């Protein structure tokens, strides 16, 4: 008889935890003041770990459960739309990666020699100006080799 009594006492504790005590409900509202939100209702206590495992539900499980309220045709169309969109996005991403690789590698191959030639031409020009400055002096390099005319005093 002892197990039956334990079972009955478990039922009483479960029922007692589910009921809302009016005194407990009044205390938070009295402490919070007149202008605050109403107190939240108590949640029933979970008796065991097995019950807790049954109550835990993921978002994907909830969404899957909601699909049962739609007709089969709507589910198929939605599935096809989602899968087509996913496949299209994957292909667009792959294509954009390929296009980016071609554009950047081609621009480097085409523009790198131009950049090197411009830099080489600038270096040659700087060397010519430096040689003129050494041979003709500071004013000779600027004027191109012809000395400026002297002003009368």
Automatic annotation (TrEMBL):
Listed Basic and acidic residues bias regions: 1-10
Region (Disordered): 1-51
UniProt cross-references to Pfam families, sorted A to Z: Tom22
Keyword annotations from UniProtKB, A to Z: Membrane, Mitochondrion, Mitochondrion outer membrane, Protein transport, Receptor, Translocation, Transmembrane, Transmembrane helix, Transport
Keyword Protein transport assigned: yes
Cell compartment(s), UniProt: Mitochondrion outer membrane
InterPro entries: Tom22
Family assignment from sequence similarity: Belongs to the Tom22 family.
Protein's recorded name: Mitochondrial import receptor subunit TOM22 homolog
